[in-house]
Design brief:
Number of helices: 5
Largest sheet: 5 strands, mixed
Radius of gyration: 14 Å
Number of domains: 1
Strand content: 25-35%
Structural class: alpha+beta
Distance between the termini: 25 Å
Bound molecules: flavin mononucleotide
Order of helices and strands: EHEEHEEHHH
CATH topology: Alpha-Beta Plaits
CATH architecture: 2-Layer Sandwich
Helix content: 25-40%
Length: 137
């Protein structure tokens, strides 16, 4: 199995219904492909982690990259894993623009971070801290 984490940018403003539409399809498809993960959205940027068999994950990533709703997908991590980190989620989701998220304990250190390649170029620790925060809350 592998995990793949990428960031990308929405090509337009997304409302909650449009985000939920992506999620609905993702959850249906991912559960059939035994893919799990988490999608974060903040200020027009996506960060997604996909976990599963390498062939399935890479095939899905190619499909996602062709989706005209976003652009500039960049892989920030691709590693072999023995255990899933998001095994309970066919696709977890958090909109980091939500006020409810901003008041989560432990979120304040991420308030000023953006979901971009530059943000995580210094190391992936903060990326995993962010993902784990939402997995555990
Ligand atoms: C940021 C983003 C993340 C996405 N994540 C997934 C995903 O995890 N799984 C999935 O099947 N589709 C995902 N999609 C949607 C795919 O690009 C594509 O529209 C969908 O897989 C098509 O499914 P269908 O052939 O069943 O209609 C995502 C789209 C975007 C913009």
């Amino acid at each position: 199995m592998i995990n793949l984490i990428y960031v990308s940018s929405a090509v337009k403003t997304f409302n909650e219904a449009e985000l939920l539409e992506i999620l609905k399809v993702s959850r249906e498809n991912n559960s059939k492909q035994h893919i799990t993960g988490m999608l974060l959205f903040k200020d027009g940027n996506f960060l997604q982690v996909l976990e599963g068999e390498e062939a399935e994950v890479m095939k899905l990533y190619e499909v996602i990259c062709l989706d005209p709703r976003h652009r500039g997908a960049n892989i920030i991590e691709k590693s072999k894993i023995v255990k899933r980190q998001f095994g309970d989620w066919s696709m977890g989701f958090r909109n980091l623009n939500d006020d409810a998220v901003k008041s989560l304990p432990g979120f304040s250190q991420f308030m000023n971070k953006s979901l971009t390649l530059e943000e995580f170029s210094g190391g992936l620790n903060s990326c995993y801290e962010l993902l784990n925060l939402f997995r555990d809350n």
